[in-house]
Amino acid sequence: MSSMAVAKKRRKEKRSILKELYQTFRDGDAATRLSFLVMGFGCLRRGQIMKGLLYLAAQVLFIWFAFSFAWQHLSKIGTLGNVGMQRVWNEELQIYLRTPGDNSMLILLFSVLSILLFIGIVVLWRASIRSAYKAQNLAQAGQKLPSISDDLKALLNERFHMTMMTLPSLMVIAFTVLPTVFMVLIAFTNFDADHQPPGNMFTWVGLQNFSNLFGASALVSGTFSRILGWTMIWAVVATFTNYLFGMLLAIFINNRGIKLKSMWRTIFVITIAVPQFVSLMLMSQILHDLGPLNALLKQFGFIERSIPFLTDATSARITVLVVNLWVGIPYSMLITSGILMNIPKDLYESASIDGASPARMFFSITMPYMIFVTTPYLITAFVGNINNFNVIYLLTRGGPLVTDYYQAGKTDLLVTWLYKLTVERQNYSLASTIGIFVFVVSAGLSLIVYNASGSSRREEEFQ
Hints:
mainly alpha, single chain
């Protein structure tokens, strides 16, 4: 569905909600109309006491929350605080004491939380109105109104899906939606090492961070463009080399002439059984300039000076790609093995009768079938490699460092650069800006590739 179609659908849904509220107010009686002001009034008026009290309690609690907590933060959202840390003379102690000022981070966080709760109470307000109107229609029709026990039974039967989805939905809002919105807003501030609340407040700077990232700051934008280029090269090469070599390995193991297939699969699966953290840390030590590999090569006379596997820019990039094959190929082998077994054998038999070579059968039968089935996996692997923190950071820590990069090294991906800016340099605003860009690129490429693939457009084929 195109973006214009999605926007049109949303506008239609908004109009239908407003139309529903208008019709409810127009056709409702006094009790239903008062429910627009006092949540649960219609239910209370018609004897649904418990339901009405629950709606009313929600409204009272929200009003209390709004005036006692939310307003003190929402009133400062425009400036993110206006009272800084101050030195106050204490007559009793005869010293200056520091008094904390406004905490910009808490103001922003609690403001976002308050807005989400406001959206939640609006949803509950609409449910209260619909409940009051439904009770009015049932009363006018002479039917029995459902009691609180009937509603509870419904939540365990025909509306059981709502019961099961409520808690997960709340958890998603609390631990995914709220942090994501907070992170996006941080990108429009100057939250960095020089603006650390509560000592120093940060403020809104508009699109300044985006401007720095895309040209206003030569050092930052230059670093960003080069790291972005390497990130895309890494993601493409890492994804398709793992996929191709994993598929070839699966084909060789599944070949009729290969014996002890289970043993060969087990040998390669061992690399998955060993924690990736351990494997990568071990490889980092082995490939060190003074590590075992260079020591052995020197001892046997193959080299005179240590090979800079991880300290030279070009060598380090090649090294991380090769090591990534070691930890990535077994996953691809397992995934493709099961799919290869499901390719109809008569396709290969027909091609063999027609005189097709093994290479021809691979490119005409195996590859199209595999790509058709595994396109979602390839998209997931590609996005995963864009955000592949472990391989890069545990092997090279993004190095080697260079002076023409801003707080980054030659093997840094956008995600490892973001990590350094956040953890090591406390430049949260720039890191948040990079995070937004990574999300847009990952989501955009995933949607475009999937919608253009045969897996989306011709899902009934190869059944």
